[in-house]
């Protein structure tokens, strides 16, 4: 089994990374091959809305998204991981999500299956405590998952990280690890 984690935090060792690492450790301990992609380090151009992907399901822009597309295609598990900024993912991860318009076009306009069925997981952290942020960010992520032929299985999130960092929440880290194990085992 293979998993790809699309990590969208510009903070290298922040709360989102700590939470994601616990989930990742569960995946690895369950013998899953994991590709961790820090999208903040990639050279990616934004979607320009040209609609060329509606003709063949491919994006013509030649950048690091080609690598991302291939890893998503070959994975059984897709993970989106991001801190919550203004009730959505970071701009770096949103740019990646927008570039999956080609997958949307392939599936819904051209009526071609993108790949095998996948399992989707969301990992989010937020400094504040407003639970409504999870609803907002999850909606965008769910539509992304549908375009990738993934069924959303779980949303792992921690709110209030301004008051108490994830690293100090042992029960949360253990839960994320266990959810990583479960993700592989089905």
Radius of gyration, taken over Cα atoms and rounded to an integer in Å: 16 Å
Q: What value does the average pLDDT take?
A: 95
Instruction: List the total number of helices.
Output: 7
Judged by helices, strands and strand pairing, the structural class is alpha/beta
CATH topology: Rossmann fold
Strand order of the largest sheet: 2-1-3-4-5
SSE topology string: EHEHHEHHEHEH
Shape: globular
What would CATH call the class? Alpha Beta
How many separate domains make up the residues? 1
Helix content: 40-55%
Number of DSSP strands?
5
Beta-strand residue percentage: 15-25%
CATH homologous superfamily name? Flavodoxin domain
Account of the protein in words:
With 186 residues, the chain is an alpha/beta fold. It contains seven helices and five strands; from the N terminus they run E-H-E-H-H-E-H-H-E-H-E-H. Helix 1 packs across helix 7 (170-185). The longest helix has 16 residues, at 132-147.
In short:
The chain is of the alpha/beta class. It has helices spanning 15-29, 53-56, 65-74, 91-99, 101-109, 132-147, 170-185, and strands at 2-7, 33-38, 77-83, 118-125, 150-158.
Main attributes of the structure:
186 residues; alpha/beta; Rossmann fold; five-stranded parallel β-sheet; 7 helices; 42% helix; 19% strand
List the helices and strands and how they pair.
Elements (H helix, E strand, L loop, with lengths): L1 E6 L7 H15 L3 E6 L14 H4 L8 H10 L2 E7 L7 H9 L1 H9 L8 E8 L6 H16 L2 E9 L11 H16 L1
Parallel strand pairs: 1-2, 1-3, 3-4, 4-5
